[in-house]
Amino acid sequence: MIAPAAAASEDLADALQRCAAGDQHALRQILDAEGGRMLGVAHRMLQRRDLAEEAVQDCMVQIWRKAHQFRAGDGSARGWIFAILRNRCLNVLRDGRRLESLAPADLTAMQDARLQAAGAGLDALGDQVALKDCLHGLEPASRRAILLAYVGGFTHGEIAAIQSVPLGTAKSWIRRGLDLLRRCLS
Questions:
Q1: Which of 6, 63, 140, 152 is the right S-S partner for 118, CB 3.0 to 4.6 Å?
Q2: Angle, alpha carbons 19-25-31 (nearest 5°)
Q3: Closest Cα to residue 72, out of 29, 141, 14, 128?
Q4: What DSSP line would sit under the chain, residue for residue?
Q5: Span 42-58, average pLDDT
């Protein structure tokens, strides 16, 4: 008996092969099987439903166009599909399209709220939390960069701009800070 997850993976791989052969019903099968999860992942990455829906649609177009490139021996069909979706979402984020439909006042308010959340992130942990103690052990610039990234949701580039440092410096602060946090918490 084939496990349900293995059967679903085989179904997706088969659907990709049929897409490569021009079977439009196979594309519908992929969307029916994975569409909900795809939309959830895209929404988590893009933080806007309209952009998430657009990313999923663009992903489906890419799946249709590139189905012939899928090789079952190189990885799972689901992994291949979600890699396309992830790349599409990252392209949307790089293009800055997630912010272009916001009014300037709304954009400013959103950025201020994200900065406030990152600033309050350490205080919101309470007194008895090991993470708070470990965060206090970091250099202030590294601690702020980590809070901006993981509480405020800022990208490395945005963090570099906020802290007025080169991009590589911001990335190093985050990487070294996370390494110290891992060691402190283990």
A1: 152
A2: 85
A3: 14
A4: ---HHHHHHHHHHHHHHHHHTT-HHHHHHHHHHHHHHHHHHHHHHHS-HHHHHHHHHHHHHHHHHHGGG--GGGS-HHHHHHHHHHHHHHHHHHHTTTTTTS-HHHHHHHHHHHHHHHHHTTGGG-SS-HHHHHHHTS-HHHHHHHHHHHTS---HHHHHHHTTS-HHHHHHHHHHHHHHHHHHH-
A5: 87
| pLDDT tens sequence across 125-143 | 556 577 778 888 899 899 8
Residue with tokens 């390494």: 179
The percentage of residues in the chain with a pLDDT greater than 70, rounded to a whole number, is 77
Rounded Cα gap, residues 63 and 58, in angstroms: 9
List all residues 6 or more positions away from 103 whose beta carbon is below 8 Å from its beta carbon: none
User: Average pLDDT of 89-109?
Assistant: 66
Question: By the 8 A CB rule, do 174 and 142 touch?
Answer: yes
Cα–Cα distance measured from residue 8 to residue 37, given in angstroms and rounded to the nearest whole number = 14
Question: Which pLDDT value is given to residue 3?
Answer: 47
